[in-house]
Amino acid sequence: MTDRVVPPAARRRRRPTKQGVVLSTELIVATALRLIEEHGADALSVRRLGRALGADPSSLYRYFRHTDDLMLAIADELIGRTLRTWRPTGDWRADLRDLGLRMHAGALAHPRAAVLSSYRVTGRVHEIQAVEGILGVLREAGFPDEEAVRIYHAFVDQTLAFSALDSANRGLPQAAREAEAAVWRATYARLPADTHPHIAAAARHLVATMRHSSYPAALDLLLSAATARLAEISARAGG
Question: Taking Cα atoms as reference points, which of 151, 123, 125, 121 lies closest to residue 136?
């Protein structure tokens, strides 16, 4: 796509495509998301997307100015899919843990798209909703505004970083993932204690845990630190 711009009022196509489908922003995003998971970043071409939709490629400019505009819409859609299933309960720590795990799981369900979009800032409706929701959870828990933003920043960046990391790993061929997991058994578990005493002492735990994502553990550490910080703030306010 190029930087050609079509005014919003002129974007909606009312006639069906060759396949009898009426184009919409939602349909284009869903199709692009599917193509990315099948073909990677190269799927985001006007020609390939138009072919998948059964539409003239030029008609896509009625909805998106260029490929990056579409990528931001995809990123925002992934956020939206997570938010649709998340309901805060009033327990701030449990709510953030639940949201973080849902965000991580959502990324792993669309690993190629997650790798491409995890570092983007969309400024769109679902991202705005997420920022508002997370800050609301933190402020209502008693965190001052500056601390709420600090913890929000750490929480989101940690979640997105692990999402990209684990999505990239999931994108490897199964054989490659199994081979890397086997290194912990074949190499690390066999290092002698006289040369590598710390690895040897922890070897069985390395073998058991290193093939899995450490995101849940890292999330719990972050939330524990935030809980301790809130206790400090409350103690100062009470004193």
Answer: 151
Name every residue whose Cβ is closer than 8 Å to that of residue 126 and which is 6 or more positions away in sequence: 76, 77, 79, 80, 83
Q: Are 137 and 155 in contact (CB under 8 A)?
A: no
Q: Are 69 and 1 in contact (CB under 8 A)?
A: yes
- Structural domains in the chain? 8-65 (1.10.10.60), 77-172+215-238 (1.10.357)
CB–CB of 104/215 below 8 Å?
yes
Angstrom CA distances, 104 to 33, 164, 180, 214, 216, stand at 17, 9, 22, 11, 9
Start-to-end C-alpha separation, the chain? 60
78, 32 Cβ separation under 8 angstroms: no
Consecutive 10-residue runs of the chain (239 residues): their mean pLDDT? Answer: 48 57 90 93 87 90 92 96 95 98 97 94 97 98 97 98 96 93 96 98 96 97 98 87
Burial of 67 (0-12, 13-18, 19+ CB in 10 A): middle
